[in-house]
Amino acid sequence: MPNPPFSNPVPCHTLCQVQKSMLILKVSSQITMNFREFWKLYFSFNRSERRAIRFLLLLITIIILVNIFLPFFIQSKQWDHSPYQVLLDSLSSAIPYKDSLYFSTRYKFNEQYSSNQFKKSYTHSENRLKPFDPNALDEAGWQQLGLSEKQASAVVKLRNRKGGFKNIADVKQVKFIPAYVMEKIEPYLIFTIDTSKVVNHEFKPIPEKSLKLLDINQANVDEWKELPGIGDKLAQRVVHFREKLGGFHRVSQVCEVYGLSAETCDKIIPLLTLGTNEVTKIHLNYASTQELASHPYINFKLASAIVSNRNSRGFYKNVEEILTLGLVEKELYDKLAPYLKVQ
What we know:
- With 343 residues, the protein is an all-alpha fold.
- The chain has 16 helices and four strands.
- The strands form two sheets. It has a two-stranded parallel ribbon with strand order 1-2.
- Residues 93-127 and 206-210 have low confidence and may be disordered.
């Protein structure tokens, strides 16, 4: 008797493998069709487009080659910065750090720019900008500040024709001085030469070494305002502080004025002098608490201690007693002693 159909059925796991294989083939075929469509959509070009692409590639290649080989045929111009070195040094002093990237690129691609040249270009010159009188500056001096030869000559001629510069406003009105130069030199301008006695508007500047220094115990507000960095309010503070002290007994006391920056103080100290160190002194044995406390170096607590000790122990025999008795520290005593007396 013949066997019935499908007497030996195919195992189930075999059918599953066949189905998986067919599914994989179908998915692969679909992916291949999608990739072909994608490629055809974005990467197939007609004849004119292919021609444009070839032209762009050729143009890019030429630009790259020109950029590589052009420095070998064209030498960079060497500029002489010496006329502007003073101005450059004053600007470089304000830079908190040096541009290492600039040096590395210049040194890498230009062998002529040696490390010694790099150090020299960043070394501060001893000829930094210092306070100067524009009336004492010749053509060479103006050129060092950044003016051209023609500009320097024009400034000197104009100054001589006017009879000298009397203030900063006069200098600012000179159209031959570029704005960036004026901005840098303005804080350093001082006017110490008397131009009021010029005859026939013929001005002859005198050497800068003979510039008159400012007597800190005699100068008025207007004279203080002529110094670099000193405005009207700051000049009034200096005079007021001097009056409260009873006069300056050393030049460095000017730097104690409220609002006077260390930078400004460094600029004006070389322009100051102490004509006389005679100061008004306070009598330790007769001054009241209020009189003592009115001095800038004596606060109310110290004034009260000085008077209280005097009342309990009797008159002071010498000024140094306030130090030996421990009423003041040594540093304060050194500042205060010139303003006290017992006789």
